[in-house]
Amino acid sequence: MVKAIVGANWGDEGKGKITDMLAREADIIIRFQGGANAGHTIVNNYGKFALHTLPSGVFYDHTTSIIGNGVALNVPLFFREYQELVSRGVHSPKIMISDRAQVVMPYHILFDQYEEERLGGHSFGSTKSGIAPFYSDKYAKIGFQVSELFDRDSLREKLDRVLVTKNILLEHLYHKPLLQTEPLLEELLEYGRMVSPYVCDVASYLDQAIKEGKNILLEGQLGTLKDPDHGIYPMVTSSSTLAGFGSIGAGIPPYEIRQVIAVCKAYSSAVGAGVFVSEIFGAKADELRRRGGDGGEYGATTGRPRRMGWFDCVASRYGCRLQGATDVAFTVLDVLGYLDEIPVCVAYEIDGKETTQFPPTAALEKAKPVWETLPGWKTDIRGIRSYDRLPENCRRYIEFIEEKLGYPITMVSNGPGREDIIYR
Ligand code: GDP
Fold it and tell me: Has domain 2-87+203-423 been given CATH number 3.30.70.1350?
């Protein structure tokens, strides 16, 4: 049985917490896309961790954590994260890395920085983790698979070839120091030595695991609205954030993904540039940011303050639909307990017409939010474990949003911890 845990919004919905929680019942947890450009924050009995590369299941003894072929693997960061876990008392996690995963090259990170500098005011707000240059090279067929890290001669030959175009850009476009084959070759061989204990044919392993009826979780990064096809292009990430891509980024049959848990946050936040219709500003935004998440809404990778907004039914319904949600996990609801009333964006007005359909970016740029206001519940709901114990206005908020989404909210998260969950 394969379940996907994916974001219905812009990311930072609390997927890490839901994965960590569901991992208790899982055998295998897989990351299938993205890289170290976003992070999951997880709070459990070992403390608080920001994971960027490792799957959120690494805290359990009984699970195997897998880095799938779809991931942008930053080897030194992977290592640092692994060692931090071990040094903080987490038993050595069982990890596998797909032999088909590709490696973030040191120059991908440089090119990400140089390009953002060059674009200046028109930059993408990249985290400068090398993700866009990485996926560009992957699809331009000049990327390096993990399986290539072990043969000095063919690595040298390929580096020589790839560096020709890289150096032309460095010299003539960016006016930066040129790259040399030999130091990069040594670095890649070192990467090979670092990952070699973990490398395997992940897709065959998963084929067998599925046949044995293992419980498998696919863990998504970011959310629908950052998908390069269905999100707010071009202010998106460079790999698909959709559950459907789990099949490709892990190497399993699409029909094996039986459950898709779309994680949806009870209000909105986004990092980086791009249209954000239900965004709020000023003192209201500051207060929500300060109270949000677990210790404030600041990027887990960059520490950047997140942009804040009220819940957006149009974007979230679209987000759930493109994920193919079978379940919605509604998260961080406890944070809203301070509000007298809670605005919700129920439709967009575009060129004088109201719509509940999420349009492509050109039209989205013109959208204005249509608000409806719900009464707040003015209490702390942390610690509540059953749905009918929630204050009436809180249930009204959940049920109002469930109706607007058109997908069942089967889990309500009311705190950052594993046990802060209400099943419906
Ligand atoms: P992810 O990338 O989707 O895993 O999300 P992040 O880890 O970036 O952001 C979620 C933040 O909210 C983390 O700090 C979590 O510890 C926290 N969090 C998750 N669920 C809840 C919840 O129900 N209530 C509160 N207060 N915090 C939560």
Answer: no
